[in-house]
Prior knowledge:
- Helix 7 (171-179) links the parallel strand 4 and strand 5.
- Helix 3 (84-91) runs antiparallel to helix 11, helix 6 runs parallel beside helix 7 (171-179) and helix 11 packs across helix 13 (429-443).
- The protein has 16 helices and 16 strands.
- By secondary structure, it is of the alpha/beta class.
- Bound molecules: pyridoxal-5'-phosphate.
- Pyridoxal-5'-phosphate (PLP) binds next to helix 6.
Amino acid sequence: MTYRQATHDVPTVFESRERPLQDENFDGTVGGLLPEELVRKELDIPDLPERDVVKHFVNLSQMNFGVDNGIYPLGSCTMKYNPKVCDEVVSWPTVADIHPLQDQSTVQGALRLMYELERLLAEIGGVDAVTLQPAAGAQGEYTGIQIVRAFHESNGEERKEVVLPDTAHGTNPASAAMVGYDVLDLPSKDGCVDIEALKAAVSEDTAAFMLTNPNTLGIFEKDVREMAGIIHDAGALLYYDGANLNAIMGKTSPGKMDFDIVHFNLHKTFATPHGGGGPGSGPVGVKRPLEGFLPVPRILKRGEVYSLDYDCPKSIGKVRAFYGNYAVLVRAYAYIRMMGGNGLASASENAVLNSNYLKELLKGDFELPFSDLRKHEFVLSGRPLKAKGLRTMDFAKRLLDYGFHAPTVYFPLVVDEAIMIEPTETETKETLDDFAEACKAILKEDPEVLRTAPHNTARRRINEAKAARDMILSWREYKKKAANQTSA
Ligand SMILES: Cc1ncc(COP(=O)(O)O)c(C=O)c1O
């Protein structure tokens, strides 16, 4: 094992020099364009030379692991390598230097790009109309379930329940509950939706059934059309969580599977890394009868002129400032245009191939619950580790020492000690072989080495519960907390 992460002693930029920025020669009035009284003479930011700022951020980046460092097999998150050309186009002045408050006549290119992206996503998703506004998959779900409510209300119905399988991602029940629905959790059978249980659960109170296909175990729900029939016969709607679209694009679509509403995770499937709190985008697509409920504004094309339309009486309203996360939309557009339909289909094929190849390499060393062929991801159980007094988390931490990002762990909840691996299409066979070899080597190591891992990273094991519960996300918050602690 040769991996060793860089370790630098990096104070925050604020701590590195307390002196605030004061520059007598700085003409903040921009040559007299700004009134003197609006210009601050002192800023509460440190006075650092550019050289130190660059050193600071480069050193910090070396103490991190990202999609550019190596395989990042975070199941359900689709952390594929993102082509640099998609980042490059976002830096072009025609993209980076425009403002959402500009007159529409001056941003026709941006409106055209968004209009065309909506059409491309509609084709990929097998739906009729798309909004690009939601800023994440979870916000897409929230928007979609608001559309569900608006649809039933327009029919004079007040349905109370949203049904979802126990393999669902936590954001699904959370979104349904936030819109005001009761959530009915459906136990799975052999890793898939239990059709008889679904029939028993659905009633005239059911507003929607939320599903991702392939599901979060990586198994394709082959009875999805039968499920759609059950849901539609009850007057309810079928919602597709697009988190797993990377397994099926260009091969089939949620629309073909009879889903009525779908969200896309552009930041998974279409060239922006997911997670780490980074910017996201969760467009929502619908079949024609639901189009009127989409959020405003809609993008219109009349002749060769594009405009934003707010005159949509049935719309659920606005769900986000301006028109969506434009930089993520541009990356997705560039990626889809670059790949083309055949390219997207082959990305899915390779994602599925890589997943099954890795599954075959590893299934003998762990437990593989449910025997079906997997799609783009598979879930192992780390239960065999228990015999050595270890847990899946210890294994995941030790993988970091080998220079591999850990898979998703403890999700989905239906698998004990779950290890959810999604290699994506962008990794080579050599990388997959190395990854499998590392997993096998770890299982043979002294349990104490795993229990105390990671050893070769910039930070040792952190208190993850505290990190999630006690978040300090800005310097201002840090200072506020420090001041409160001193005064307490
Ligand atoms: C299956 C599934 N559904 C929904 C989401 C929510 O998406 P987002 O993180 O973009 O809000 C995720 C996130 O990873 C997911 O894996």
